[in-house]
Amino acid sequence: MTDVRNRTVDLPGVTLAYRESGRPDGPPLVLLHALGERAADWDTVLPDLAPAHRVFALDLRGHGDSARTAAYSLEAMRDDVLSFLDALGLARVDLVGHSMGGAVAHLLAEAAPERVDRLVLEEIPALYPRPVSVLPEDPAQDVHFDWAMVRAVKAQFDAPDPAWRAGLARITARTLAVAGGPASPVPQERIAELARLIPDCRLVTVEAGHLVHGARPAEFVAAVAPFLGRV
After folding, report:
1. 207 pLDDT exceeds 90?
2. Do 103 and 128 form a contact (C-beta atoms < 8 A)?
3. Share above pLDDT 70 across residues of the chain, in percent, rounded to a whole number
4. Per-residue pLDDT reduced to its tens digit, 117-139
5. What is the spatial distance between Cα 122 and Cα 221, in angstroms, rounded to a whole number?
6. Mutual angle of helices 74-87 and 100-111, in 10-degree steps
């Protein structure tokens, strides 16, 4: 069983919760979840990644046990992760992001390329405007995320900043793009485009749909662990 320590850190404007596991002296690996998920979403692959890394799985702002804030954006989440790295003294990390977490990850790698060694982007395409999503009403039951965050992030995905796509060319990290194949609702040609726009990027497809690491953890690890070069 993987030993997981639940922690929090106070950052400028937000308190983030995170789960730390793995080797204390291992190379740092940061995991960023999808929209509406939380750090525990990575538990399916953690036993295979933690033995060779010092792993930090974050609850991004508005998710899980992290703070709810007055404003939300992908850029704010990117800046939170950079502040997290500074607070823990992590000069350079391997970074894995799924879906929304993949968008946050590539925005960070664009803004601060010197902070990312290897980058894994799971089921995140090159972003283009799309039809406006129908935004859900706040449900009556408790959930582990803030619906205001969902509305803000979905609005950004509907009308993404073109600079995000242009900035992919600034990424210097060795990158692996993981696609889920035709069962995924994400346009697979856009994931292939993202892989072409990042200078040093390889594309791999795992036929699992959008939830690759959850639905096919063994295949995800088989693709990602050799790329990270630690397992």
Report:
1. yes
2. no
3. 96
4. 999 999 999 999 999 877 667 66
5. 12
6. 60
List the Cα angle 75/79/85 in 5-degree steps. 150
Report the CATH number that the domain containing residue 119 is assigned in CATH: 3.40.50.1820
Structure tokens, 183: 């069962």
Q: Which two tokens stand for residue 93?
A: 């990390």
| Contact of 71 with 6, CB cutoff 8 Å | no
- In degrees rounded to 5, what are phi and psi of residue 215? -80, -35
Number of domains in the chain: 1
CA distances from 155 to 69, 72, 151, 159, 163 (A): 17, 11, 6, 6, 16
> What's the domain range around 19?
4-228
215: left (phi > 0), else alpha (psi -120 to 50), else beta? Answer: alpha
Token pair 């939830």: residue: 211
Provide the greatest CA pair distance for the chain.
46
Phi and psi dihedrals of 115, rounded to 5? Answer: -90, -10
